[in-house]
Amino acid sequence: MSSNKQLCPGQFDGLMGCSQAERLNLVRKFLWQVKTNGLRRAFGLTVSKARRVFNMKRKNKSSVIGQKEQSTHDEALNLEPGELVEVKSEEEILVTLNQKGENKGLFWMPEMRKFCGRRFRVFKRLERILLESTGEYRKVKNTVLLEGVMCDGQGFYGCDRSCFHFWREAWLRRVEK
Predict the structure, then answer these.
(1) 28-31: which pairs have CB atoms within 8 A and are 24 or more residues apart?
(2) C-alpha–C-alpha distance, residues 151 and 78, integer Å
(3) Which of 86, 101, 164, 171 is 20–30 Å from 58 (CA)?
(4) Are the beta carbons of 37 and 45 closer than 8 angstroms?
(5) Could you read off the pLDDT tens digit of each residue along the chain, which spans 177 residues?
(6) Are 120 and 142 in contact (CB under 8 A)?
(7) How many CB atoms lie under 10 A from the CB of residue 25?
(8) Beta carbons of 10 and 136 less than 8 angstroms apart
């Protein structure tokens, strides 16, 4: 997370500014962690998250301020389901990525190369996603799923889940009819 982003309500230093409903949601998340992972693991995840948040705050107050870790390419096409789009060339997409290969925290995966230059219909807009590792919901902006564009698992030791690839709108071009 970069220094210019606000911490989400699920993080500890955001707790004091939360509404009662948000606090209740945090308690529900913790209880879900206890139920699915056991008390020891839930407590470990909570402590781990607190460490990340507080270490990040110290780091952001140092000389790191002013350095850009996030990509600034945030093209909003406001795509809707059924619209026809073309995936930009790999060169155009790489320009939108930071040093870690991300655009606003979303990785460009090498498996997505084979879709460059091809046309697809938008299947669905993403507004929020569930992080399976923590049970936390995250808001997502300018991101869509494309019909029939799924991970084949080749880059992940033959994984058979067939997950949709997440596509930033900055990586797509609207095709006019």
Answers:
(1) 29/134, 29/135, 29/136
(2) 24
(3) 101
(4) yes
(5) 344 433 343 444 444 455 677 667 777 777 877 777 778 777 776 666 666 555 544 343 333 333 344 445 667 888 999 999 999 999 999 999 988 888 888 888 888 999 999 999 999 999 999 888 888 888 999 999 999 999 887 766 778 888 899 999 999 999 987
(6) no
(7) 16
(8) yes
Q: What radius of gyration, in Å, describes the C-alpha atoms of the chain?
A: 19
- Give the pairing type, strands 136-146 and 119-131: antiparallel
Which three-class secondary structure state does DSSP give residue 172? strand
Instruction: Tell me the whole-structure pTM to 2 decimals.
Output: 0.59
Token pair listed for 65: 């301020």
Question: Residue 68 carries which side chain, given as an amino acid letter?
Answer: K
Rounded Cα gap, residues 136 and 101, in angstroms: 23
Greatest CA separation for the chain: 56
**Single-letter residue type at 104:** K
